Amino acid sequence: MRDFLTRLPKVELHLHIEGTLEPELMFALAERNGVTLPYASVEEVHAAYDFSDLQSFLDLYYQGMSVLQTARDFHDLAMAYFRRAHAEGVVHVEMHFDPQAHLVRGVGLAVVMEGLSLACREAERELGLSTALIMAFLRDRDADEAMWVLEQASPYWEMLDAVGLDSAELGNPPEAFSEVFERARRLGIPRVAHAGEEGPPEYIRNALDRLDVCRIDHGVRCLEDPALVARLRDEQVVLTVCPLSNLRLRVVERLEEHPLPRMLAEGLNVTLNSDDPAYFGGGMLANFLACKRAFGWGKETFRRLAGNAIEAAFVDEARRQEWRRQLEEA
Ligand code: HPA
Ligand SMILES: [Zn+2]
After folding, report:
1. Residue whose C-alpha is closest to residue 81's, from 69, 70, 90
2. pLDDT per position as a tens digit, 271-329
């Protein structure tokens, strides 16, 4: 099964590139940039990654990215992830990045975009790995700032495959960002949003109705609302589910209790993703393998999940055709 799951052409739709920062690279970049970390060793870092909820993770996630200062750092971060992903059979990565988390530290959008776009071109050329960029707004900061970031990003609008909404969900409902997302819509930029990870089903409905998103990141709490489930099924809204993330952030206590099998049984358009692989215990293959262990799924279920992601990716039809062929042959 491991060979099959490695061969399967995996498309990753929900990844935060800052969440791919492995402790080893964190230490190397801290040294390169003269940053002092609150950890003495890689083991100490791993021990600190004992999260109780989303906020306890976000605190360390924002702290960890203090080592990212130059375009070269962002390039090295992304290339290190692309190489790992490629080695486990990932064919396409759509990555969120968080400009505001860098702006507040004095690292401008140009630095981030230069490093990431260089890595994206290199991944295509050297690994045959395609990529997409999703510029995310932090929902625990105000909407005016998000609008300002969207305007500052004008030199890069053409390079953005989508805008997203992430960070602390509870108490930060999507509708506060309706004007920002309306501006993105008028610019022709697709929209996605995290909803229903820790937040209630209502946040999922409002992300669809008020932000006009084409995908919901996470969405696992939809099952609490049968009418919403029916709508998500009828409209085949893509849900980017992240099983190891949900386990590590205590959305579920055991993977065996995860809503994924029920979501599939309801006919929802589910995909598997890694979210923040350096913090949650592994990348795409680790997530697929964890589902195999927890749910005992056969090849057809994994084909369906990988197929859903292929159909939902921000890519042209030629690429999709190639991955459909690889899926058949896996
Ligand atoms: O899982 C997440 N949820 C919300 N915001 C995030 N930012 C990075 N990872 C996450
Ligand atoms: Zn996420």
Report:
1. 90
2. 999 999 999 999 999 999 999 999 999 999 999 999 999 999 999 999 999 999 999 99
Instruction: Note the ipTM here.
Output: 0.96
The count of other CB atoms within 10 Å of the CB of residue 109 is: 18
- Give one DSSP letter per residue of 218-235, joined into a string: E-GGGGG-HHHHHHHHHT
**Residue 72's CB: how many other CB atoms inside 10 A?**
15
- Domains detected in the chain: 2-329 (3.20.20.140)
Q: Where are the alpha helices (DSSP H) in the chain?
A: 2-7, 23-33, 42-48, 54-64, 71-87, 99-103, 109-122, 143-152, 178-186, 201-211, 226-234, 243-248, 260-265, 277-280, 284-295, 299-312, 317-329
Whether ligand 1 lies within 6 angstroms of the CB of 194 is answered as yes
275 marked among binding-site residues: yes
Token pair in block for residue 185: 């819509």
- The pLDDT of residue 259 is 98
Query: Which residue CA neighbors atom 1 of ligand 1 most closely?
Result: 275
284 touches 274 (CB < 8 A) = yes
- What does residue 164 show for φ and ψ, rounded to 5 degrees? -135, 180
How far is Cα 170 from Cα 274, in angstroms, rounded to an integer?
21
pLDDT tens, position by position, 31-84 = 999 999 999 999 999 999 999 999 999 999 999 999 999 999 999 999 999 999
> Is 167 close to ligand 1, i.e. is its CB under 6 Å away?
yes
93: confidence class by pLDDT, cuts 50, 70, 90: very high
Choose the catalytic residue: 197, 198, 202, 328: 197
197 as an active site residue: the answer is yes
| 329 C-alpha to ligand 1 centroid (Å) | 34
Nearest-angstrom CA–CA distance, 184 and 191: 8
